[in-house]
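User: Can you predict the 3D structure for this chain?
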Amino acid sequence: NMHLKKTLVLSLLFGGTTIFFFFSRESSIPQNYQAEQSGSLHFRGKTKAMRETKENTAFEELFMDKRKHEDEARERSANTVVGEPDYFVEDPALQKDAEIASTDISILSNWEGLKSKYLRSDNNIAVGPNHVVQMINSALFSSYIRVWNKTGDIIINKANMYDLVGEPDYGDPNIIYDEKADRWVITFLYSDSDARLIIMASVTNDPTGEWYYYDFETTGGFPDYEKVAVWGNSYVVTTAQANPNVYLLNRESILNGTGASPVIKFLIPKFKNIGWQAASPVQQTGSMDLPEGEPAIIWRVWDNWWHPPYSAVDQLELFELDIDWATPLSATMTGPIALPIEVYNSNLCGINSNTCLEQPGTTVRLWPLSNFITDKSKYMNFGDYQSIVGVHVCRVNEAGTAGQRWYELRKYPGGEWYVYQQGTYSPTADHRFIGSISINEDGTIALGYNITSSTVYPGMRMTGRAVCDPINLMTAPEAISKNGTASNKTLDYGDYNSLVTDPVDGSFWFSGQYNVSNKWSSNVVHFTVDGCLDEKSLPQENTSLSDLTISPIPASNLITVGLQSDGQSTVAIQIYDMSGKLVLQKSFMAGIGKNTFSFYINELASGAYVLNAVAGETIMHKNFIVER
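Assistant: Here is the predicted structure, written as structure tokens:
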């Protein structure tokens, strides 16, 4: 990973004297990564119909103690940060008003999900026009799957993948509904030690029918915590390792059962001092096609505490992936594209522990997954802009409460991805963790997560917001999907929950885990987020802007503009040199309240500039310096 040493210059005018203070910081510079081939897809054939499988849990007790994920445990125990002592700064994105109540949640149905004797459910869900499909781990060497119709009738109760594919698997199941293809796709681990993944695609739009079945080598190592997402003509798979990897798979080949196809791999730059890490793939959803040539996105979050010298800003890091399957080895990955975010603190469990979230009546503490964007992030193209939503856990206060930091990124035609809104949701002193988030074609956002504390047993909750609500806020009062009635007996509560958008009506489905005994159960809740009638509210005219800020000063390659807006409006950012020549222009959509917009200024030479922010009749000016 290439880095650029920057010098931050702060000047104070005192008695006519300018005093300069110099601080060193280090920030990532985007670069291009060349593809390498990680073997090929190995076509194993076509399975029998899933509806023909037999429910069989007879071997679960036998295999339960043998399945330990010892390699995974070693990696996770190494997930420590070594460096200067952490200090707490109040989360500037924390939502102060616990309940805005301009939006509400209506629960449409609540179904009991699958359960097994394994220590982590790794539950996840996919929803199509007519079916709801949930998958979990099992203590047997085979993942479990359940299929409902939309009215809640169970079509397949508890099929195991061993009976479907004819050989054992090692779990970590991941399922998606590919809306454009009207097909279902599943990935899971091939074994406890092989660097290999299984991927399957339903032959038709009926998940209870036959499936095409493949495996492929993951040359980057054991592919733990794999996530799969669809983007354009590819399936994108990310894995969690000391050196995280991303794999691109030929979507057409997988959907058509055509056999061998190359698997393309990229190595993601490693964070220092973090032992177990990964990026999140972004899942294409919605009825509108991608803009032509729009690259796939994977992203992750970075806390400056992980990486000396601790003076750089916290940020999201995006990587863009381009591939032409006619010449797959010409594929490129570009990044990291740094998007500065409000300060967040990942230190929930201290330097030497991964578990710290309390439960009632036990000393067992739960693991919060504090360095991941959790689950698959969701993408939606609205035509006039594109949107990505994601979530991760963070430390909210000095007491160590876990909250949910969520984001919506936007990209306008001719523009770049920027943080449109962000917020930290923590309406009570209880811990909220293992979140999943989604967005629908109205721009409505829903967020689901687990909750626990010294007085609240592990359960499931949801919140949400409508597009016309004030930005940076979850406006729906917290809704309860399932209250827990017991504490979990193990510290490793789960790797992920799953919240998705219904492709038919834009409602939401949330699959999560909760406790009615000392062993987790799972649940599926179907709900809507009810807000403004005109969901896609139009930008307001005559918007007033205030509080223009630029950082850092002097700037080098990436600049962040901040401002307050009293309405939704397109804001033009114009940069002039000292001769009055317009040298750079950007635009973004500002929402009500605080806005930040980051972009690169690599094309600007060192020197002094004037930045204008323009919305309607409002113009603000600020001088700044570029120094390299």
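Residues 1-27, 61-75, 77-85, 534-540 have pLDDT under 50 and may be disordered. Helices lie at 60-64, 70-77, 161-165, 251-256.
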